[in-house]
Design brief:
About 35% of the residues lie in helices and about 25% in strands. It is of the alpha/beta class. Bound molecules: N,N,N-trimethyl-histidine. The site of N,N,N-trimethyl-histidine has 11 residues, from strand 13.
Length: about 325
């Protein structure tokens, strides 16, 4: 396929696909990721850890979708209900003709709850997995004959590297799903600053944030009875085995998830059931019975706690939508 703008470090932008004139595909240059090094450093000695991004191999992504269907896992359901109830108010507050940018768009399911009301000037999904990005984008231009999509294949963890060819006009950054909860406080602030920079001085951010609540509710959400979250957590070991040529046996670990009230986060770990030796990239590591590998933090904010974090990154709260139980929140924030 023909490419335009193959300039130094500029990435590539393809002309619209022939089957429809409203889908543009941009690929951003990426520094080579040192995933092997990152995993080995995290696992070599205690306290051991695996970053949550490694959950999402293709099986892990399917398991996550099944988590969202479990009765105990409320965040996805409550957030979706908030979009259903408030899409008109959200659209009225945001205004029409915004350039709608979604980092980590995945299958672009949530944005569909807003598109008809929001009527953005264009939709800009950013996604590292090209197959998800293109599949979702093609579906959107087919379903919404008025919509232009600028699909950007890029990693957003080190800032939003947006192509220069995007349409002008005020922007709305969209970051649903309480993904912000996976970041430690300092990286969360740093990431919100990336979003602030990407949205410009006349832009806004719409972000979904899970809230602090009774520990029993939180702990049930990460320990569903059907064992899907446990399978999701244990599956990360299969992914690690492939990435660093390891021989982890998931059956020798147990899923462990609990609310840490001091840090206001749900932690997930994998606890070794036995004394064992695991080989990673030809080096043995000894793991004692009861020792844990930390796999995820999911921070739970108070409304004020999140607003303070956003304020720190240069955002002023405009409106907040919450369910009656105050389990989940949507924040519309303006750049200051
Ligand atoms: C996708 C990060 C929002 O933290 O609740 C679900 C991931 N982990 N069950 C979350 C997850 C275990 C989820 N986020």
């Amino acid at each position: 396929m023909e490419t335009l703008n193959r300039g130094a470090g500029a990435g590539t932008s393809r002309p619209p696909e022939p089957e429809h004139q409203r889908l543009f595909v941009h690929t951003r240059p990426r520094p080579p990721a040192d995933e092997r090094g990152e995993l080995l450093r995290g696992l070599r000695e205690p306290p051991r850890c695996i970053a949550p991004k490694f959950f999402y191999d293709s099986h892990g992504a399917k398991l996550f979708d099944r988590i969202t269907e479990q009765p105990e896992y409320y965040p996805t359901r409550v957030e979706r209900e908030l979009f259903r109830q408030h899409h008109r108010d959200i659209a009225a507050a945001v205004g029409p003709e915004r350039l709608l940018i979604e980092p980590g768009s995945g299958s672009s399911e949530k944005v569909e709850l807003l598109l008809e009301s929001l009527r953005p000037s264009a939709y800009v999904p950013l996604e590292i997995t090209e197959s998800h990005l293109l599949g979702a984008s093609r579906q959107l231009v087919q379903r919404y004959p008025w919509l232009t999509v600028h699909a950007v294949c890029a990693d957003y963890s080190e800032g939003l590297d947006l192509p220069a060819e995007l349409p002008a006009g005020p922007r709305l950054l969209f970051f649903p799903g309480s993904t912000i909860g996976n970041f430690e406080p300092e990286p969360a602030r740093r990431f919100l600053r990336f979003l602030r920079r990407a949205c410009g001085d006349d832009g806004s951010l719409l972000i979904g944030v899970d809230l602090r609540k009774e520990p029993a509710v939180l702990e049930a959400a990460y320990n569903d009875r059907a064992g899907v979250t446990a399978a999701f957590n244990l599956n990360v070991l299969n992914h690690v085995n492939r990435l660093v040529d390891g021989d982890f046996d998931p059956a020798q670990f147990r899923h462990c998830a609990f609310f840490n009230g001091t840090d206001s986060r749900v932690e997930m770990h994998l606890e070794s059931l036995v004394d064992q030796t695991v080989t990673l990239a030809n080096s043995p590591i000894a793991i004692a019975a009861g020792e844990r590998i930390h796999t995820e933090n999911s921070y739970k904010y108070t409304l004020d706690g999140f607003r303070e974090l956003a304020d720190n990154a240069g955002f002023r709260p405009r409106e907040t939508w919450c369910d009656e139980r105050h389990w989940f929140s949507l924040h519309l924030l303006d750049a200051v």
